[in-house]
Amino acid sequence: MKRNINIATKYLLAFFANITVLSIAAGAEDLDSLRELPNQSEDLKVSPDTLSLIPQIDQTHRYALGINLAWQSRRDYGDRYFRRFFPEILGYVYGPTPVEQLFWRGGARLGYSSDQPEMPQSIQITEQDTTIILEGALTRNWYWVPSIAFALGYDFKTTKVKSKSPIESVDDRINKKEKLLLWHIQAGLGLPLFRGDILIEPIIRYQQIELDDRAKWLLGFEWTWSPSEPKSEIN
């Protein structure tokens, strides 16, 4: 089962890598066409509409939907660390701030993981985690889009223990469901493409989960889609 999950993950990463390369190539074509404009005429002035070819987020982007392919670095056995695949689906809303080119970003995340480290066949403890998180962030509108976020949420954890011969029985008190409070601080640096409609953002996260100190760091790769709206509809 674990091997199938790893294979599926590799194919999924390869798919997003290919899409990313194609997106970057398309964005580069837009930038090349922008650079060529001044050479066409010495008197040509670049209008604000022309500058919109530069891939960045602006006031026409009000929300975004996407996924986060993430891995927890979890310390399960002594000094050994386990890379646990922990994907999320997410949604963002954007709004202006008094500071030019600085935007606030509200978000919600839904994550799930049942990925487990290798265990003996005779006894296995499995954990399933579903996280629901609300997040607030500040993000800067530029060629690159840095962001810093703080979030609060819950981890709904289900723990089960299974045994096989030669172990005849185990303590059933290990089987339980918990609702654990969590918080995290996250930093990201996004690459906007197609005038900001697509944002590719590597992220790093420090997190604290109530009663669980095993997983404090998470690395992820966010891919969000934010359709732009005509400026005439916003004004």
Explain what this protein looks like in three dimensions.
The chain has helices at residues 2-40, 48-51, 231-234, and strands at 63-77, 80-85, 88-96, 102-113, 123-140, 145-163, 176-193, 198-209, 215-225. With 235 residues, the protein is α+β, with helices and mostly antiparallel strands. It has one domain: Porin.
Question: What attributes does this structure have?
Answer:
235 residues, alpha+beta, disordered N terminus, 9 strands, Porin, eight-stranded antiparallel beta barrel
The residue-averaged pLDDT reads 78
Helices, by number, come to 3
Q: Oligomer, anyone? A: single chain
Low-confidence stretches: 1-5, 19-56
Major sheet characteristics: 8 strands, antiparallel, barrel
How many beta-strand elements?
9
In CATH, the topology is named Porin
Straight-line distance between termini: 53 Å
- What would the principal axes of the Cα set say about the shape? elongated
Number of domains: 1
State Rg. Answer: 22 Å
Provide the structure class.
Answer: alpha+beta
**Percent helix:** 10-25%
Strand order of the largest sheet: 1-3-4-5-6-7-8-9
Strand content: over 45%
Name of the CATH first level: Mainly Beta
**Helix-strand sequence:** HHEEEEEEEEEH
Give the CATH architecture. Answer: Beta Barrel
